[in-house]
Amino acid sequence: MAHEPGPHTLDAEAVRTWSSLALAALGRAREDIDAINVYPVADADTGTNLYLTAESADRALAAAFGDGSADPAGVTDGTPAALAPAPTLSDAVRAYAHGALIGARGNSGTILAQLLRGVADVLGAEPAGRAPGPLLAQALTRAAEEAYQAVAHPVEGTMLTVAGAAARAGSAVGAVGAAAGSAAATASDVARAAYDGARAALAETPGQLAALGRAGVVDAGGCGLVAVLGALWQALSGQEPAAEPVRGRAVPVPQTPRPCAQEQDGPAYEVIYLLEAGEEAVGELRARLDGLGDSLVVVGGDGLWNVHVHVDDPGAAVEAGVVAGRPYRIRITHFGDERRRATAPPVQRAVVAVVQGEGLAGLCGEAGATAVPARPGEPPSVPELLDAIRRAHAREVVLLPGAAELRAAAAAAAEQARADGVRVAVIPTRSAVQGLAALAVHDPGASFDEDVVAMTAAAGATRYGELAVAERQSFTSAGICQAGDVLGLIDGDIAVIGPGLPETAEAVLARMLGSGGELVTLVLGPEVPDALAARLEEYVQHAHLAVDTVTYRGGRYSAPLLIGVE
User: Fold this and answer.
1) Whole-structure pTM over 0.90, yes or no?
2) Cα(501)–Cα(467) distance, rounded to whole angstroms?
3) What is the pLDDT at residue 338?
4) 553: three-class secondary structure by DSSP
5) Phi, psi for residue 350 in degrees, rounded to 5
6) Nearest partner of 135 among 144, 126, 143, judged by Cα
């Protein structure tokens, strides 16, 4: 929920207002900032990455205020908002920084997350007796210092330069009041000085970085930071800047085509992941990744980190994370694909499908869908789904959540995408096989409503089964299972308990085909032998002569066996 701008002391409510205003400012400037993104890679996504990072931070902050629906992880402790204690300044800034950390996107978003962490390190301590103005100046200084330290090879003329200038300007205002023996500068005074200092530094960036000077643009990440600092001043003063805090084309942009992927120097892939690891392991990780590529930024602390790097070998970058700790929410982007998407006109319609399994993701890609990979126990968040909808670059999007527990997140992402002007329909698929059935009848040439109706009907007409292995003894709807038993689920309910995959799979198939069917789809997990598929195909052929069977490999992270009956 947006909060009305008004003068605030430096407290939790001020942080909440700052977040709302920053998100709105980045939303307005996103396309302009994308348009001037030339460094370190001209992939036209800096504005979008900053917006998605700020959105994740805003959702975490809203959750700290008791709005559980806004939790980026989709998890709350169940405490009613009316009974939860009001967050302190420390609670607010730490939640804000944590939300940015877990949702950081791209080089610019990762640096923004570390800037917010630096602010939280100072304001989160809430030292008694400190005047708010000097305290905010110290926070901005710490933010700039930590951001510089997080970047393996800092470059001037970038977002870092703007952050440093803002910190120096804010500190100068605080120091003047203290030296004169007069009242210390207010937090609003410091924020205004930092904002003005950032704007001045931004205007100088084309002369500091050759890539910006050649393109005739200011730094895109710095543009976003100016918007965030303008929102901070507005939250503390209640005064709206005389002009929009940032215009993307602050310097005229030459009307020349962007370099194509082949003309760009540097690594081909961007790798981002969250990492659970200790300080020492992260230090070793930095050294290893620094030898693999460039644009290395590692932010975070206290056991949780966000890692960003550009490399030619994304597998090696992920492997380095595995050596250091537990990487997750891994995102690998090929810059050539991003550039082509950025320069191509929007398509009329696209399909976005959540799938668990690399093989299934490949199948969806071959069918023309944008796949959102999921792992066991790690469903995609609302910001990740929204990012996938935006990456589809379409005026109309059909979203296939692929699991019942993702329907709420899918609906929330669709609602936010509609606010961007994208027409989105969510088809309530509860299994990957229902998504495959919907994709099979997808017709981009039909009207949007006709296509959605046909895809919804195909998904609804597909019964789905799944085989899983019991981890412990438990009471189920089919009886008591022991650890190691094979569980056969039909339409989400445990229907069969068996000693092995073949027997249980045949029992599940028999029950599913008992009510009829024309096509059986089998999706085999990574460790399931081809012999099981052959056995099941033979069973269907002999027991149900008119039924066809198709088999796919689900790949890594997929369930042992998925079954669809249409």
Assistant:
1) no
2) 8
3) 57
4) strand
5) -145, 160
6) 126
